[in-house]
Amino acid sequence: MGLLLAPAAIAQETARLDIGASSLISEKKGWWGRPSLELTLTLSQAVPYRAVIVGDPPRLIVDLKDTDFDELKPSQLFGHDSVPGIRWGDFRQNWSRIVLELPGPYDITSAGQRTLPPQATIRVALDPVDEEDFAPLPSATAALRNLPEPAVLPVPATPPEGLTVMLDPGHGGIDPGAIADGENEAELVLKFAKELKASLEAKGITIGMTRDSDVFVGLEARMTAAREAQADLFLSLHADALPTGQAAGATIYVWTPRADNRAAQQLATRHDRSDLLSGVDLKGKDDQLASVMMDFARTDTQPRSENFASFLTSRLALHGIGLHDRPVQGAAFSVLKSPDIPSVLLELGFITDPHDRANLISPEWRKRMVAVVTEAILGWAQDERARTAHLRQ
């Protein structure tokens, strides 16, 4: 683990990356094991920067102040294929971020900035470590909360044709959800859902809501509403409570495959068979057959749910939204049971965490979060359209 801040003089102009003089070098020190890595960034001038290792999955994050990547792409960096992935872009106002997905646990062994006017070179060296010695910071957000407030970045303008999204603000009515410091989960997630609805509709997306006021809606009725709307994506919104200090940051949940059999049996028993799968009449079928048919449907929807979770996680990380230490998790939540609709539950944050709670009641934070979720939905929908077109070939 490492966290470094270069006390370089504040740049008067925007620094630019010299891609030809920058690199990611991989060097093996034996016949086996992971290689050592060295990231070299050559800039037009010195800038303040930070470097940190975070986990789940292991990543090196480098934040650069007053730096512009212009039209440069990570694939142009020499040695970019030494790691599973690289991405960069605007992070917060006056800050840019580079994220290197690492091939396993690493630690920063050295980092520094050398200035040779007019250029400056930042080097970050990493060595592999054993899992038991891996000590990442709990999250990038926890380490960098004192950076300037993130700017709202533009969202792709291409609306997917015919896309319908069902937003599901959790709780409501007699069920206020989690409560902390005078705020309740049901009101906070409903406010966010309405703001997200407006953003998505402005992009040409058809939006349904399981509730648009402070009313109670049963869990199964929420899924039924999504099927009736022929939704392409079901997004449930929550802001739960955990004991202080146990959790903070956005968390994304998808259905846990290990719970499929039990959940399928419960659904087959509790519901009218015709309500389980859109377009498939299960009336008169026994429980075993109903379960098998739902499992078969889920072989398509589960990867699509996980794909959306990946899109959402990457956009949240790139735009500096605080993430839980384990940003994507599996769960057997009722609203994720639908075998026929890609479904994801997004914990916007934990209402019991003071920082998260301040975010949830902040119009500026919600606006930024809305923009990021909108961008993730657009990106996922475009990927889905490309996947469908490929399957038809």
Provide an overview of this structure.
Helices cover 28% and strands 28% of the residues. By secondary structure, it is α/β, with parallel strands linked by helices. It folds into two domains: 3-143, Immunoglobulin-like, CATH 2.60.40.3500; 164-392, 3-Layer(aba) Sandwich (Aminopeptidase), CATH 3.40.630. The strands form five sheets. The chain has a six-stranded mixed β-sheet with strand order 15-12-16-19-17-18, with helices on both faces. A five-stranded antiparallel β-sheet has the order 1-5-6-9-8, with no helix packed on it. The protein has a four-stranded antiparallel β-sheet with strand order 3-4-11-10, with no helix packed on it. The termini are far apart. One of its GO terms (biological process) is peptidoglycan catabolic process. Pfam families: Amidase_3, AMIN.
Task: Give a brief description.
The protein has helices spanning 140-143, 185-202, 219-228, 260-270, 287-318, 354-360, 363-392, and strands at residues 3-5, 15-16, 23-27, 36-43, 49-54, 59-65, 67-68, 85-92, 95-101, 106-116, 119-128, 164-169, 179-180, 183-184, 206-209, 233-238, 250-255, 323-331, 343-347. With 393 residues, it is α/β, with parallel strands linked by helices. The chain folds into 2 domains: 3-143, Sandwich (Immunoglobulin-like), CATH 2.60.40.3500; 164-392, Zn-dependent exopeptidases (Aminopeptidase, 3-Layer(aba) Sandwich), CATH 3.40.630.40.
* Biggest pleated sheet: 6 strands, mixed
> Which structural class should the secondary elements be placed in?
alpha/beta
* Spans where pLDDT lies below 50 across 5 or more residues: 1-12, 142-156, 259-294
Write the H/E string, N to C.
Answer: EEEEEEEEEEEHEEEHEHEEHHEEHH
Highest-level CATH class of the largest domain: Alpha Beta
- Give me the CATH architecture of the largest domain, please: 3-Layer(aba) Sandwich
Task: State the CATH superfamily name of the largest domain.
Answer: Zn-dependent exopeptidases
- Helix percentage range: 25-40%
Give the end-to-end Cα distance, rounded to a whole number of Å: 47 Å
Mean pLDDT: 78
Strands of the biggest beta sheet: in what spatial order? 15-12-16-19-17-18
Count of discrete domains: 2
Q: How many DSSP-defined strands?
A: 19
Rg of Cα set: 23 Å
Our count of helices gives 7
InterPro entries: AMIN_dom (IPR021731), MurNAc-LAA_cat (IPR002508), N-acetylmuramoyl_amidase_3 (IPR050695)
GO molecular function, one term: N-acetylmuramoyl-L-alanine amidase activity
EC number: 3.5.1.28
Keywords: Hydrolase
